[in-house]
Design a protein that fits this description.
Length: 501
Amino acid sequence: MPASPRSSRSTDSFDSGRQSPLNGFDSSAALILVPDAEETAASTSFDFSSDDDVDAEEQPDLQLERLRNSPIPPLSSISVFLYLLAPYLKLGALLLPGAAPSGKTGVLAVVVFAALSAFTRQIWYMLARYVRRSDLEEIVLETFARGRGKERKRMVLRQLVRLGVGSLRVLVAALYLRFSVDCLLPFLPDVLAIPSRLITTLVLAAFIAPLYSARSLESRRVIYASWLSVAAYAVWFSCTAYMHAKGMLAPLAEPATLGRLWQGLPAVAFAFCTWWTVPLYASLKGTVQPMTPKPRRSQSFKLLSALSLGVAVAATLPLVFFSASSKPPQTPSASMKTTVAVFSAAALLLSVPSILITVPALPIPLAIRRVTNFPLSKALVYLITVCLSVLPASITSVGSDVILILAFLSTYMLPALLHITIHNFRRPLSIVIPPTTPNPSAPRVEPSESRHDELLQRKERTLQRRRLGRRLIWDVGVWVLLVPVGGGGVVWAVGRMAGRW
């Protein structure tokens, strides 16, 4: 990574042209360098980050070391593919047979939200390349608090991002744990004085505790658990297809667990909600050797993202044709119902550790951390998750709707908002000056005849029109994602929760 985003050229797909001298101006130039009013005459640095980030930016080795010590360190291509695919094959997909619109409407919904998910991943990918940052926290800081003298604002934003990311992941993990228990409860005896839900939750929490104790997603037991989660989904899918063919397909769990939003299009939207996009891109780039001129095709993040989305669509699209009913024409056998329940619970339960591992650490006081080496933050996060999963159904039904809205905002609205803000309301990280700009200090070179070649000029104009067309299409897509899709979806969801429609 370069030393400073301000002194580097943007790697955004809209960036074009060659570097040129910055001394002198040309009134006929398409772009003119505008001096920054915030800079003083004595300032010689083009770095606008806060003082506590300067050393990390000036030393790429420190950034790589930070990546290696993060919950998502450098990973192999197959592991990155796994973590890109896994979020698609979870609760949203399991609910599609009974919640998704049927027929052509369901197919259209799956295709549209799959395309929106791919679009948002591309936005995150471009934002990470543009600001040259490896996580959501740094992208938000570069968007809303770039510049010197904004340390307090950066600190507040940093804490807000950590709180938002941590809260959403804990809530999603708690929802997955609770739904896993819901799948198994009908097949467990209720003869003890202690409620079966509490006992089952504690047993399942103890089962996945060793997986959660891993330090990062690089741990083999976490990778194996994630693969087993995908395999469990594949078995559940096969059983669901068989039950649909025999006319005995029933919904997974009781409706009281989920709120009013988990029917129709919101269920499809949640099925294609993602996370970890920026950290996974950084972890994949962390495996590329510095001296490698061109990474292998298997290390292309866009290729891995497209493959994961293609597999997800293939594994979820048939589900919209499976109509689950609380009273199917034929009653499934007890063994078949048990098999479906166990593998659907396993698909969710085995994904909980990978979600909780990436939760930011709680701000434990330094005095307490000095006293013990016990991972108090991880233990508290786990305890909070388990406690949230055993709350009464009246609370969890409303909480599940809140989780769906938060996941929708983080997946579809947040990247669009950051993209629009950083590209339309912030100074560009770099300005490319055309080669025609004169440089008085440089030796004068006679213009070549090719500059006046009509064919070259025609090709240049064609290229510029194509780039302008792509940028207009891209800008329209981002605004559509932010306003009609994101804003309209949130307004509808809030009205639905309030009982307005």
